[in-house]
Amino acid sequence: MRTSDPAYNPAMAYRYHILATALLLGSCGSGPQRPDTTVEDPDPRRGPPITATTPPTEHAEIQMHCSSVDPRQHPEYDLHLVADHLDGCAVHGSGELTLILESSASPSSQLVITIPGYHGDGTYTPTSVSVSVSDPGETHTGQSPLGGCGGCTVTMSDLNPAAPYPKTLQFSVSCPNLCNADTHTCTPTLSSVFRVACDGPNP
User: Fold this and answer.
1) Which residue has the higher pLDDT, 45 or 149?
2) 10 in helix, strand or coil?
3) Residue 16's pLDDT is what?
4) DSSP 8-state symbol, 13
5) What contacts 141, CB < 8 A, 6 or more positions away?
6) Residue 152 forms beta bridges with which residues?
7) In this structure, is the dihedral angle defined by the CA atoms of residues 103, 130, 140 and 193, taken in order, positive or negative?
8) pLDDT tens digits, 12-21
9) Sheet holding 60-68, edge to edge
């Protein structure tokens, strides 16, 4: 509408301008907010939960340094064992559980654990935990309990208590130190968690 038109009303034109501006701003504004349905990815550092179908790992790596009470007569040495092959795991009729986990590269390098009175989930004091590593020309060992090394603990987890043997058992092994006779003490703490398939008592 032109301002020279006799019918032109400035007040009405201003109202139309305000209304048009409001409608324009309304059409450009954001509509109703939709709920955020984003699902965050799980922490990639967390592994899958351990269940009855979790396969055995059959892998324990041990790294210790064995200090000598008399380095002039008994040199110090390192125990570095990568035990990645199951030689045997069995629960015997007496309740004793024995485990031998060995190195696939050197079968005489082994982790051997003996647990008395095994009866399922729980923390046990093993009769013996021993580590042997076949180095060129000599086999180095560490054991507990022995001498000044008072003993270890092994926490056992049966991933499927109702299942018959053979089945997967989880070992969580902790030894403050290992000893070799009265000549060496091996540190730091041996700490290892692994799962293996174990046989049970013969029917």
Assistant:
1) 149
2) helix
3) 52
4) H
5) 79, 130, 131, 132, 133, 180
6) none
7) positive
8) 555 555 555 5
9) 77-83, 60-68, 184-187, 178-180, 138-144, 128-135, 110-115, 97-102, 85-91
